[in-house]
Amino acid sequence: MACHGAEGKTTVPLYPNLAGQNAAYLSHALQAYKKGERSGGQAEVMKAFVAGLSDTDIEDLAAYYHSLKP
Description:
CATH architecture: Orthogonal Bundle
Largest sheet: none
Structural class: mainly alpha
Distance between the termini: 15 Å
Helix content: 40-55%
Shape: globular
Radius of gyration: 11 Å
CATH topology: Cytochrome Bc1 Complex, Chain D, domain 2
């Protein structure tokens, strides 16, 4: 919420909006953070957030953000 906003709409230009984002893309991105395949920027912060998520958790989050209106 602090980075991407409570409803997936960020108020900080550095972070992308997640509301309405493609679910497959979000799932892929979260899996890449979890596996350590993404680096730079806020990758270390994201790795910490996704480390304890199951594959189902990731799919659920991706579906949730996809369902929000941009």
